[in-house]
Every structure is written in structure tokens, then in C-alpha cells.
Amino acid sequence: MSYVKGLKCRECSRPYPKHALYVCEYCFGPLEVDYDYEKIKHALTVKEIESRPHNLWRYRELLPIDGKPTDGLDSGFTPLIRARNLAKVLGVKELYIKDDSVSHPTLSFKDRVVAVALSKAKEFGFDTVSCASTGNLANSVAAQAAIAGLKCYIFIPADLEMGKVVATLVYHPILVAVEGNYDQVNRLCSEIATKYKWAFVNINIRPYYAEGSKTYGYEIAEQLGWRAPRHVIVPCAGGSLITKIWKGLNEFHKLRFIDKVETKMYAAQASGCAPIVTAIKENSEIIKPVKPHTIAKSLAIGNPADGIYAVGVVKESGGCAEDVSDEEIVEAIKLLASTEGIFTETAGGVTMGVAKKLIEQGKIPRDESIVVCITGNGLKTQEAVYEKIGKPIKIKPNLSAFEEHIKGR
Amino acid sequence: MAINVRIPTPLQKLTKNNAEVECTGSTIRELIDNLEKEYPGLKERFYDEGGRLRRFINIYVNEEDIRFLQKDNTPVKDGDEVSIIPAIAGG
Fold first, then answer.
1. Which residues of chain A have pLDDT under 50?
2. Which of A180, A274, A302, B57 is the most exposed place for a label (fewest CB within 10 A)?
3. How many C-beta neighbours within 10 Å does residue A229 have?
4. A23–B10: do the CB atoms touch at under 8 Å?
5. Among B19, B35, B18, which residue's Cα sits nearest to residue B76?
6. In terms of DSSP H, where are the helices of A341-389?
7. Is A361:A91 a contact under the CB 8 Å cutoff?
């Protein structure tokens, strides 16, 4: 049963059939899935969703596949944590962490988009999947392709963190490390995608793939007891996630699952790669691409494909944007770990750092509900914090040596 | 010798299904004007009604994004490689 009418250009609204297309032939605008919401309204209810298993496919009618889901059957429905310790430190009343650092199977929100992308790629009949990635996507495509028995080519920038390389290679894809930054990898992949008939999850499958991110937003609303939070802070790389969380909340309202969406969306980036934040701060209509230089490598996209849409969401919702330095990223990682026991990667440090900054600046009020989006796991980017978290106390194996060290603590 | 221009799939209908074409010009804008003479209809795909380069088109000269150079005033010369890539995806 399909609820998808077709694809539609986000810029000029020209309609396209639901094929492996991603760009408008006429104006080059990105294509987006066009749903039949009337049909969905009749098929899906809150009660129905609540009766289903705890994974992202509980929202299946709002995802762009025609048949049964085949991938990521245990992905999604990660914890929404009431962060009381952290709230105390920041002086706010109602704070939540949406924690995709424990997503199955590869510990980042990319498991959601890949679940949808691979299910769709199979419907299209592809036998090879591929992606350009800053790491998390590489992990997820490699793992889920292994489960699905698909051939897999992964392209990454050559300077990626060891944890992300290892967590890709272990699934035995063909891993290509390109000498260049992510934007260069991406450009290369766009050219490869026109020549090879593969399912590039974030190129020719992108309209479908990106829809998977909506489930992050659906879950926030469902886990809050079917309501939208007042403030959501989202890390931005290509800018897709923030637009899809926003879309997800608004779809829930359209279906009357939640009341009016009075949520303000905030974009978080690292100062060393902040094209979206800069455009918002400067109130610019265009995104000026940058050459990234930051420890937050998973967010190091200098030419964000959905940049202008991310800017649009922030403005439309009445939110704002902020960036943080590498030092602030590390401090924020440590803050989240020491208060809530969550070890996030550098991207999570960016989001957490920006949330803290915006609260301190008074831009996010202290007495309203706030959700911080934690999208990846710190075990993958250990080198970012390794020398900044102290060292173990080394002792001889006897009691007096131990007591010598704990004296005065 | 001329400038080698890589044409993205959506535009290959206009270039007689050629993925690469050769052309001349001293800047990107001139190159596009010359392409238009050879392959009518191409120019309006690059520029919007207001004469601005469409925001979802990415043009590279020898792998460098022209927005880091001089946009459509970026100089080009014989032997250069120009890539036209729609809506960089990714992310």
C-alpha cells in the first residue's frame, strides 16, 4: 500500500514520477516526496501507532516506501531522556535529550535514513548501494548493506577519525578514502552517480532517504505525550535533519496527532564550518560555501545541500542560530557526559554547546520545554577528547599504593 | 584545444546526449553564452529570469567551486576542465 503520489520539485513544484531521481530537470531544485495526506489520515491514528513495535517503521504510512519495510527493523525509537541534572546546571525547567547515540545498529541517527534508503533501493531493484559520508552514514550504509546482502561502495574524506573508519571497514564494504574534504567527496560521487547505476543513498535516493529523518521528530512528539516541544536545537551539516524534524512535527499537526506546533528551531554548527549559521546571522538569502576546519568532522560540510531550507525553517519557526569553537565543543561533550551519562561525538558537543550558549544568552527561555538533539556516539570520535579528560591513576597492585593516591580527595 | 565541459544528466538532452562537450570563452559567463549558440536552451537552465545563476547549480573550474573564485566572471582558458553539477546532494 503506497501513500506516495510522486516526487515534486521544492523550487518550481514540477511533478515527477517516483523513480530514482533527485533533481529537477528544469531548475535543478531538489525533489521531494509528495504524499497523499487524505489517504494517510484514514489509515493512521495515534492508537494504531502506539500498538506497533518500537522502531521507526511505526510511522510507515508517512515514509516513502510502497511495499513492506525490509531494513532497519530495529532502528529508531531511541530514548527521550528527561535531563534533570543538566537542567539544574543550565538553570532550566524542562530539558530533554533525544538520544540517537544509542541507535541500532550503528549508534547514530543515520540508521533512520539508511533504513528507508535501503528499503527503497530494493524496491527499485538496485543490487549495489553507495554513499558519500563524513563517517556516520558510512557506518550505517556498510552495516545495513551487510545485513541486506547488497554490494556496497563507501566514499569518505581521507582524514576521517579512526573510529569511523574502523566502524565502516568491519562490515567489509569497498571503502574509498578520497584525498579531499567532504564537499570534494560529494562532488566526485555526484559524477560517479551519473555514470554507475548504483543506489547512492544521499544522491539519487536522497528524496526518499531524507524522509527517514522525520521519524526523529515524530518520536520527540510521541515521547513527550503527543505534543511538540517549544524549543529544539539541531546540529546542521547538510541541513536536512532540521528541515525534516520540522516537517515531521507539522505533519503530525496536519494529521491532528498533536496541537498547533509552536516550536522554535535552532541551528547549531561549529565555528570552523558554519555556512548555515552565518546566513541566518547575516540574514542572507544565499549560503556562502566555506572550507571547513573543525574537529566536528561529521558536520564539516561547507556547501550544504539543504542550507537554504534549514535557514528557512529557523526563520519560519522564530528560532535562531549559533556556533561554537572546538574548545566549547569539547567542554560540552564533557558537560553532557558528567551530568547525564551520555557520551556523544563532536556533533553532539556542537548541539550541546550551542544549547548552553543560547540559554545563557537568554535566547531560549528557561521555563519552557527544550529538546537537545544528540545524534551520534562519542566512542567514534575519541581523539577529539582523548587528551582533555584527564588520565587514569596508575598504581602498584597493593592497598597502600591505592590509599596513597586517594589521600586528601 | 578548447575547454572541456562536463554536462550533467538532466541537460544531456540539450547536448545531443553528450556528457562532455568542448567550447571556448574567456569567462564562465562567456562560455555559457557560447554553449547557448551551439545548444539552444541551455542558458535558461543556468540562469533564472532575473539573470542570476540558479542557486542549485554548482559550477567547478578544475575542481574548484566558482563561488570561491569570481563566480561567473571566473576566467577560463584552453585546457581547463569545467564541471556542471546540479544540487550537490549529500549530508
1. none
2. A180
3. 22
4. yes
5. B35
6. 346-360
7. no
How many cross-chain Cβ pairs, A to B, lie less than 8 Å apart? 85
CB A302 within 8 A of CB A183: yes
pLDDT tens digits, one per residue of A135-164: 999 999 999 999 999 999 999 999 999 999
CB-count exposure of residue A392 (10 Å: 0-12, 13-18, 19+): exposed
The verdict on A191 touching B (C-beta cutoff 8 Å) is yes
Whether B52 and chain A come into contact, CB under 8 Å, resolves to no
Residue A178 has phi, psi (to 5 degrees) of -95, 130
Cell of A200: 547512492
Judged by DSSP in three states, A242 sits in helix
- Is A28 within 8 Å of B89 when comparing Cβ atoms? no
Chain A: closest CA distance from residue B88 (Å):
6
- Whether the bond between A105 and the residue before it is cis, its omega within 30 degrees of 0, is yes
Task: Tell me the per-residue pLDDT of B17-67, one tens digit each, with 9 for 90 and over.
Answer: 999 999 999 999 999 999 999 999 999 999 988 998 888 888 999 988 898
| CA distance linking residue A211 with residue A64, whole number of Å | 7
Tens digits of residue pLDDT in A6-39 = 999 999 999 999 999 999 988 889 999 999 999 9
Burial (CB < 10 A; 0-12, 13-18, 19+), residue A319, is: buried
| B54/A28 CB distance under 8 A | yes
Kindly determine whether residue B89 and residue A182, on different chains, have CB atoms separated by under 8 Å: no
- Reading the block at residue A256, the C-alpha cell is 491532528
Cell of A233: 536545537
- Partner B, chain A 237-266, Cβ-Cβ below 8 Å: 237-240
